[in-house]
## 1
Amino acid sequence: MDALISSANVVVDYTPQELMVAAAAREIADGELVFVGMRLPLLAFLLAKRTHAPSALGLFENGVIRDTAAPHGFMTMGDPVNLTYALKCTEMKEIMAYLQRGRVNLGFVGGAEIDRFGNLNTSMIRRPGEDGFVRLPGSGGGADIACLAQRLLIIMAHEKRRFKEKVSYITSPGYGDGGDWRTGAGLIRGGPKAVITTMGILRFDLETREAFLSSIHPGVTVEEVKANTGWDLKVSTEVSVTRAPAEAELAVIREYDPQGHWTGWRKP
Amino acid sequence: MDALISSANVVVDYTPQELMVAAAAREIADGELVFVGMRLPLLAFLLAKRTHAPSALGLFENGVIRDTAAPHGFMTMGDPVNLTYALKCTEMKEIMAYLQRGRVNLGFVGGAEIDRFGNLNTSMIRRPGEDGFVRLPGSGGGADIACLAQRLLIIMAHEKRRFKEKVSYITSPGYGDGGDWRTGAGLIRGGPKAVITTMGILRFDLETREAFLSSIHPGVTVEEVKANTGWDLKVSTEVSVTRAPAEAELAVIREYDPQGHWTGWRKP
Amino acid sequence: MSASKIMPLDLAIRQLTSDGMSLALGTALEGMIPFAAGHEIIRQGKKDLTLIGPISDILFDQLIGAGSVARVIAAWVGNVTSGAGYNFRRAVEQGQPRSIEVLDHSNYSLALALAAGAAGTEFGVTRSLFGSDISLNQDIFREMICPFTGERHLAVRARRPALTILHVQRCDSRGNAHFWGSSGVSLDAAAAADRVLLTTEEIVPTELIRSDPNRTFIPEFLVSAVALVPWGAHPSSVYGFYGHDDDYYIEYAQATKDRAAAQAWYREWVFGLPDRPAYLQHLDAARLDRLRLTHPALTIPVDFGY
Amino acid sequence: MSASKIMPLDLAIRQLTSDGMSLALGTALEGMIPFAAGHEIIRQGKKDLTLIGPISDILFDQLIGAGSVARVIAAWVGNVTSGAGYNFRRAVEQGQPRSIEVLDHSNYSLALALAAGAAGTEFGVTRSLFGSDISLNQDIFREMICPFTGERHLAVRARRPALTILHVQRCDSRGNAHFWGSSGVSLDAAAAADRVLLTTEEIVPTELIRSDPNRTFIPEFLVSAVALVPWGAHPSSVYGFYGHDDDYYIEYAQATKDRAAAQAWYREWVFGLPDRPAYLQHLDAARLDRLRLTHPALTIPVDFGY
């Protein structure tokens, strides 16, 4: 159906963000309950619904449950249009109770920093040898989703300063220092399923829980990914090339991001 | 305003239940939040609103908050008319949270048995020397109201078999075995303010927390009350006669109990 | 979109209930009680059920008298109109038709048990019930000290019913339900349960549900089956549809005062009637007419537009 | 009936706020944020406030940049449209204009802190945040073992704000408020608080509130004062009234990137404008028109009759 774009000299007619959205959408199965954020995760959810997962439901932490796309685009989940024809509007506590009860199949989180075990920092960056620190906005619902969703999908820009040997603060726990750390820490389920970056997709070894490079995006080399990762990134023996978004997928993404606010396919 | 009926040879033109309703209504202050049950407490609440406490609010444990009388009478709080033009309809948890947070000024409870410290049994009666037992319906919200309301008002038929030295099961705690038992038991506030019976009104000594006879209803003697009480009931040195319901009060009570279902002023 | 979950009530009960299971019913207190579903459970001869509910009305009494119940977890079991539940009393006092275990709660502690079940914690906390003999059951209640303030609290064991049955005013074929009025502990009972069966007065398009998302009470992902059962909550009330049949409650109390009479009641009202349409016919149309609402009070629309 | 609680916003802020108090704001998350009330707090020069909120939007950033805040108890502080809150960053990183203490929560743990406050317990319980460094703050979180199952839980310290300010669509003069849409943690924030101030788009007769009792969100007994403030939540949205002013958020981010520019922003948008009518005039009518809703989606009435 789609022409795979696998080397750098092919004209790239989609943006890295569009590829990330398409890859993220494929992680959603039909009928699933998805904790949806804004931006790329929202687009991924909407794309999945229009393709292989028509009966997936989206939860927003302000208290909205949707089974359809909003009738118009929006920039924050608290825009009135996100409530128009929603399936349910309620309070946050109810949404979070579904999450804690184990009913949420998949959640999305991003972060300013990530480490080799998928731990995320969205709170505070301290750099060794430097005096000050950078204060980030904080967890929001991220830590809850990382602790309690059945599966976690992380979406991040792949930059060496963000992919670190150790994060300076664990806001949203991944696999801690590996193995069965989550159980020992007191977590009852979950953990990152994949990290979808601007360069490739990382997955986690089922025993050690260390991230490894599972696929590279078309036009990216394994060496480039490793060079942009702050630790010695393991690479799958069967590393594949991420399937590029199909025309039909791109059409849906662009329908939901007509200005290119989030995917940059057009200058907003 | 009203002709006091204070001796037995005056024609009694009200029922004991109507007197109890009038007496209970006087315990409600304006602006208070009242945990309303059905039957006599509901009538007392409505009477208070029509007389001295127009801005009192009523809470029902199924989740209803009312600031006005329902537009028609009803037999259970789950009748649709109890929701018509209610101020708020919600879930029980919210109502009970207001109670536990200390926002409810007054609650009503009844019981099958009561003892000298105002402890109530609505669960199970075992009689000494007898083999079996009588199973009662249970607490409902009674125990919560008795534990958590600022003040508790008890309404009961005055019979020796109900007014016992010791109840066989404490469903709704009064003052335990007296003094500061409630604090010791872990209770954070409250306790019975009065027991309004078919014969008189009992109140509680502020130190010992033992019930004493505070007033007798018109036509009733102290001796009759003591004879119908299963312990040696203390009597106030200033025992008064309960003020009979005024004409205007009776008119309101009968408007809200037109069939006499609860007060028996007319055969239903 | 998702497949329809609509099925006949008898099939839903056959698929979703089994002997020995725990079942939450009557969670909106005096109204919205799923009597039709309860009668079908009796007809199908389910056994050893654990019933969970706050003030559990005569539907519990009926299930107990039918011998379907091994255990009741409740704050109140009786007849909201007349007082005592005679089948309940006979079971507890005399083991007739079988003995049952009763785990006594207060309304709030039962609400908290279901709220904890809904939120996926193993317990909830309260400051109620200190000094009440109810709190002496260590299987349900344990004292706990606040780690921040040292204040005494009571932990309440979480409850997760295997099945919660709710009667609602309207839902779509996927189980998205509008509910209005006072809801008691219904939402937590549904969210705590492993599975939910909705019986409903009406089945409506999803578009109608989406027209008022604050009215949506139960979202589809909690629901396993939907059964269309008009008048399915009689003799209790359904807000917006019909009133509480007080006479029926009083007649029921009379009819069940002794065991032999109670058996006649079951023959007349449960075993002698195959389903709810037959029940309604037996009840007779004039009686239903008397219960219909006659004074509408419609809500004023609000705008969910953009 | 009860006396009216309506008063001008400046008087309400004067009567209900004081230096050093704790204040919950922005509890519905991205929408319904009481910006007008927040600006009045800044104009009145309140100091040493503790702010409580889940994802607390730029209203927190504005109060912090004005030097009104000593402590923030929140899950997220920033700009929902553009990301960082620069006043917040300057306060935490450089102590500009003053240093502040931040007690980090997650959204759920903050919701539970307020829910416990609303229910009158000293703590709530969760299974979230294990393994997160957030849980290391022993002043807020303590590990707790379920007395029934032995499972590990986290106790969360209850929060009872001295004052919660909510913006609502409509309420009566006594403070009975209709609210529709998604509410975040607003109800628990109000029920937990010692006092509540409502700012509202409309004041309506109590009859309108009673016409839809399920839409009633805040009951009068929680409310100390009501201030009529149309557009009182701009630049955030009010469901049924106006949209989210994304441009304003982006402009705010630009205008507050450095401290000197931020001071100009305060002069222009807070100190230079005595009240919300002046703010709206400064914003200009055409901009407000662009935010008005153009696609109504009215709810379908239900019957609360008898």
Note: Chain D touches chain B through 25 residues (CB under 8 Å).
## 2
Amino acid sequence: MKTMAFNEAIRTALHEEMQRDESVFVIGEDVATHGGPYKVTDGIAEAFPGRIFETPIAEAGIVGIGVGAAMAGMRPVVELMYLDFVTCAMDEVVNQAAKMRYMTGGQARVPMVIRLPCGIGRLLAAQHSQILESWFMHVPGLQVVVPSTPADAKGLFKTAVRSPDPVMFFEYKRIYTSKGEVPEGDYTIPIGQADVKREGEDATVVAIGPMVQKSLEAAVLLEDDGYDIEVVDPRSLSPLDVDTICESVRKTGRAIVCGEDSTFAGAASEIAAMIGENCFGDLKAPVRRIGSPHVPMPFSSELVKHVVPEKSHVIEAVNQSMAA
Amino acid sequence: MKTMAFNEAIRTALHEEMQRDESVFVIGEDVATHGGPYKVTDGIAEAFPGRIFETPIAEAGIVGIGVGAAMAGMRPVVELMYLDFVTCAMDEVVNQAAKMRYMTGGQARVPMVIRLPCGIGRLLAAQHSQILESWFMHVPGLQVVVPSTPADAKGLFKTAVRSPDPVMFFEYKRIYTSKGEVPEGDYTIPIGQADVKREGEDATVVAIGPMVQKSLEAAVLLEDDGYDIEVVDPRSLSPLDVDTICESVRKTGRAIVCGEDSTFAGAASEIAAMIGENCFGDLKAPVRRIGSPHVPMPFSSELVKHVVPEKSHVIEAVNQSMAA
Amino acid sequence: MSLSPEVCKTMYTMMWRIRLFEEEADRQTNLGNVVGTLHMYCGEEAIAVGVCSQLRTDDYVLGTHRSHGHCLAKGASIDKMMAELFGKATGTCGGKGGSMHVADFSLNMLGANGIVGAGIGPTTGTALASKLRHTDQVSICFFGDGAAARGTFHEAIMMGSLWKLPVVYVCENNQYQQWVPRKNVAVIDSVADMAGSYAIPGVSINGQDALEVYEVAGEAVARARRGEGPTLIEARTYRFYGHSLGDEQQYRTSDEVEKWKSNSDPIQLLGATMKERGWLTDEEDGNIQQQAAAEVKKAVEFAEQSPWPTLANLETDVTSHSLGVA
Amino acid sequence: MSLSPEVCKTMYTMMWRIRLFEEEADRQTNLGNVVGTLHMYCGEEAIAVGVCSQLRTDDYVLGTHRSHGHCLAKGASIDKMMAELFGKATGTCGGKGGSMHVADFSLNMLGANGIVGAGIGPTTGTALASKLRHTDQVSICFFGDGAAARGTFHEAIMMGSLWKLPVVYVCENNQYQQWVPRKNVAVIDSVADMAGSYAIPGVSINGQDALEVYEVAGEAVARARRGEGPTLIEARTYRFYGHSLGDEQQYRTSDEVEKWKSNSDPIQLLGATMKERGWLTDEEDGNIQQQAAAEVKKAVEFAEQSPWPTLANLETDVTSHSLGVA
Ligand SMILES: Cc1ncc(C[n+]2csc(CCOP(=O)(O)OP(=O)(O)O)c2C)c(N)n1
Ligand SMILES: Cc1ncc(C[n+]2csc(CCOP(=O)(O)OP(=O)(O)O)c2C)c(N)n1
Ligand SMILES: [Mg+2]
Ligand SMILES: [Mg+2]
């Protein structure tokens, strides 16, 4: 075990995978300078010359090239500098990468990872803070992976690189520098397997990305109220580990689904609806969703502080659920 | 009242709005030839010369131009030939049209209608059959309108054209030729107001687009089983008329949410989660969702017939709900 | 490859195969056996055939919505192609793709595509793959004149040039973009003239002349294989049918169509040249056509007798995961 | 407008205002009052000022992520601009936009934009609006050299040309695209050379020379106003600061930066020319700079004393509807 930051964990996984498999390469804007915008591609240009492509500003072209390279048997790791820019390449992601295997009756493989730095970081307002996990959940053929810890990030990234199918890899900018213990050497974490980050009996908090840590902190504080909270981290939103989530909710009878993205038609809506459908008889309280309000991300710090959900929101929702 | 087809109703509304307001114009691919792909723009070129722009194949450019024209006070009606092609213009829709008003602190107005022929029509497979309502629901600043009858289509289209904010106007290709009574002359239907298409006491079917008609037919058949079904048509998915839906569910205690799109992270998930949250105490059975499986649309008629939900699915779900 | 009687005969045979395949597919549509729509390639055969005759099996080809010809010219099975149009389980894509998605990955024909201009990026990507693997495979992207307006054209060709990738961009300029004459929506006549923006050679050729296509494609393919980078070829052509099935074609006169058919049918032109040069006898010609017709007939039988895909096929080929999504 | 001492003085004054505004904003960032990031326009002022000096208030301008200069040159209030960077309720956008979204719709300055290349389509759209309304308003689109690689450039300019719209596309070629030198990712040197693809005039100019910008922009604006269609102008320039705050600039030498600053500062160049021509005395020069500094100081006070937006502002300006989404 080694303590490292979230971005370092991904960088380590990327180095190891490039070492292991010659078909892995990196493509994106500004990836070879300054270690890339988030230092995730630091050292790649030196260690693997000729396997990193710094591109013009052309997201549709970049992702399109990734699709073709992947179909030809390579394993591109595509970096979009901000998740928000995936809007410039949605045909490539949704109509090409995601559907190619199906449309060709299983002939095509598109083993591509698209790295998506998302959520709020520095205050950069509406066009640089989006999350949009639910868009990609809704697209069959895509895998949607959202690690919350450095250890998960490393193991999931490796699995993503080795997957025969496209992976939308969500990296919350806010937790790039958060640290954690990371196993050394090679290990993988299956895509589609949730992780019970804390066991408890009274209520289930299903938490996505940075909400995992906030929920764990909330759980500690809720101990004082005598509540024993279970925290489930889906880790991948598609495929979604329905079994683990439902098992937990059947046990506790209460569920709170938390993400940083806005709730309306967001990832939490799918999870909440699924719980409502599968665990109806076991529910002692309505499934609650926690997330941002349905507004574009504002710029001013005074507005932003009302947008992103914090652990206090988790505590409040658990209390409401317990009181119901 | 006059009997007319769905596409004729939109065409009529478009003609009347162009007559009424000089700032309305049409832009899109092949819109001025053959009456446009769905005959919705038939006669516009003759009646309003100079106010219809047939473009190169350049969806990002087209929607971008729409955004600018709208900000300059025009009211563009943008046609995307197939909803699927909106993937080529997502930055323009999501980061520009939707957010401009907010980002500029209320200075910008983007009064643009984007017409989205969607769903399955002829068998054209995965890249020509998508629906994706939930993507746009998830984007603050957009209105998502889904008419199910010719009369609603006309009234909602007029409201959409007059709205100061962008409207994603979903036109299910399958019902373009379906007929209905349409009031003559000028009338509008507010965006954000659901319509109870049939009153009933035993269960609420919330049905989107073509599922409305199928649900009404299912409701007639369910009378034989002694079930009295209420059918609620949201008509707009964003803003969503939470009050009307919840009022119905509180009355009946049962809810089935039906759309043609795939359920996973789809529009039905938001509605189901919302009902679960707001009507928990009144629910006698889990909220069920009906929609497509999570697969790209296949080509073969033998596969397609297993994809699109029909009235039999509604009947089955209602029966399950009543039995719970 | 230099032009020989054998090459000509192979091309001529393939052109007939494509022509008769499509005419039969059209007929099968009227019978209700082929569903969806067809974008007929009739009239443009010299381009696919001329280009693909310069390729190896391991060279990559990506197509468009109008790709029956690209697929067949790359060597795809006529049986499987017909079965795909029927929506049968034995089709190139198991019935999941249909006319707009025909593909044969065993031949590195990576598919038709329903989105205009969507193949240009991916073809640049297959070329990047070849470069990374140090193979000398060449990638070919076919696309229409309409596609040249899309941003993907601009973005992808720029990177193809930047990294000197082994790719040939082949624009089939049939002068229409669905129902709109190119002259109504384009600001320059020749797509090849855009090559300067990307610092690559651009050349405009007569797409009805298989020999010219063959020559020019040969040079471009050789150049790419030598690692000297992309070429943009515009092949001037004309489609003999409407844009897709049911097209009323009010946007052009039947006179115009007839003139192209009688003066510029690429099959007739090649046949005449070969006969002039003494490379084809009337008898051989008859045999070639009969042979192609027989293959097409067999393909229809194959398609008719093939099984349908079933519910069990519906959720396969989405990803390697079972769906696992509730 | 022809070049006069008055025009020069106005331009010179505006350039100082922009320069000092940004230097102060940078300082306020270090104090923690300005948050987020800043894309400094320092070094490129001659372009915004030269172009906007040819415009009427009702002409449209759309900008980029680097648009402090575009906004101020179009006439935006320096107070409101500073307040926006502070995130205050009195900012141009009520604190909702910040540096990347400054805008003043009362001046038809329709906003900076955080997405590279995203303004080119919308500016073509404002030009279409003017054409439809039969006004003679001109639309100006500023964008970087990096943006010229985006598909939006290709698609929008093509339609601007097709419909002969009154728009001028102004590329600010500062030779870098974030941290990457243009020469590493571009295949042709001058963005203006792409104009041929769109059948419009393309001209490359020295963007450090306000007078050259003024002249050439004047012609392009006049041409657009006469209904003769778009022009593509490439203005060669250089940014004196890093791409955005905190940029370590390992990708260029400080020598290079210093050379540009000492030889090609657009403000120094214009000042020197004016003095040579006897259009500016040292005293006037001093006054102009003092006046600009005083305005900036006042703007900071305004921003400091302004109220914050509150929770009540959070959900306004999304649409005209109340949210109504649960
Ligand atoms: C992005 C996109 N926009 C629009 C369409 C609808 N469409 C299909 S084919 C076509 C015309 C294509 O013209 P061109 O590229 O010249 O090819 P051609 O049909 O002439 O072979 C159009 C508009 C599409 N499939 N994809
Ligand atoms: C579509 C998109 N891709 C990437 C970015 C990130 N980004 C912001 S500015 C920039 C460089 C832009 O270069 P250029 O257009 O030359 O403008 P400059 O910064 O030099 O003024 C990049 C890559 C973005 N904002 N939008
Ligand atoms: Mg064409
Ligand atoms: Mg630049």
Note: Chain C touches chain A through 53 residues (CB under 8 Å).
